[in-house]
Design a protein that fits this description.
Number of helices: 5
Number of domains: 1
Structural class: alpha+beta
Strand content: 15-25%
Radius of gyration: 14 Å
Shape: globular
Strand order of the largest sheet: 1-2-3
Length: about 100
């Protein structure tokens, strides 16, 4: 993730991440799992699910749920790898949080 771009595009959400307990580990890219924990703590839940699978390929996508609003976003495309999928899902989660903090 491009943290400079995220901090400029979603300043309020990024500031909240900065004040969250595991912020240095998140930015170090060592513990991407912590981003899921951060958004969980904000009641924004990112789900990854398999769409299709056969012996030659597997396609995955994502969705985001909130306790109050239910389903708030779904992936616009299917991916064959988790890295690209998570990048898109995390950015959408930052966008949702930024709107909540406005």
């Amino acid at each position: 993730m491009n943290w400079k771009e995220i901090s400029e595009k979603y300043p309020k959400a990024f500031k909240l991440l900065e004040h969250w307990g595991n912020y240095p580990a998140v930015l170090s890219r060592q513990k991407k799992r912590l981003l899921y924990d951060f958004f969980d703590s904000q009641k924004i839940f990112i789900n990854i699910w398999m769409s299709t699978y056969d012996k030659d390929s597997m396609l995955i996508s994502w969705s985001i749920y909130q306790i109050i609003n239910g389903l708030v976003a779904t992936g616009g495309e299917y991916y064959d790898n988790r890295v690209d999928l998570e990048k898109e899902a995390f950015e959408v989660a930052f966008e949702i949080l930024e709107k909540e903090l406005a």
